[in-house]
Amino acid sequence: MLGFLIQRLLQAAAVMVVISALVFVGVFAIGNPIDVLIAPDAPQDIRLDTIARYGFDQPLWRQYLNFVSSLVLGNFGRSFVFNMPVLDLILSRLPATLELTLAALIGATAIGVPLGMYAGYRPHALGSRIVMGLSVLGFSVPTFWIGLLLIMAFAVELGWLPAGGRGDTVAVLGVQWSILTLNGWTHLLLPALTLSLFRMALMIRLTRAGMREAMMSDYVRFARAQGLSDGKVIFGHVLKNISIPLVTVFGLELAATLAFAVVTETIFSWPGLGKLIIDSIQSLDRPVMVAYLMLVAFLFIMINFTVDIAYAALDPRVRSGRS
Amino acid sequence: MTAALEVRGLKTHFFTRDGVVKAVDGVDLTIAPGRVLGLVGESGSGKSVTGLSVLGLIDPPGRIVEGSVRLEGQELVGLNREAARRVRGRKIAMIFQDPMMTLNPVLRVDTQMFMALRAHEPVPKDAARQQALAALGRVGLPDPEQCLTAYPHQLSGGMRQRVAIAIALLHSPSVIVADEPTTALDVSIQGQILQEMQRLSADTGVALVWITHDLAVVSSLAHDIAVMYAGRIVEQGPAEDVLAAPRHPYTRGLLDSVPGEAQPGKKLAQIPGSIPALVDLPPGCAFRARCSRADSACETMPEIADLGGARAVRCFHPLEGR
Question: Which terminus of chain A has a lower count of CB atoms within 10 Å, N or C?
Answer without folding.
Answer: C
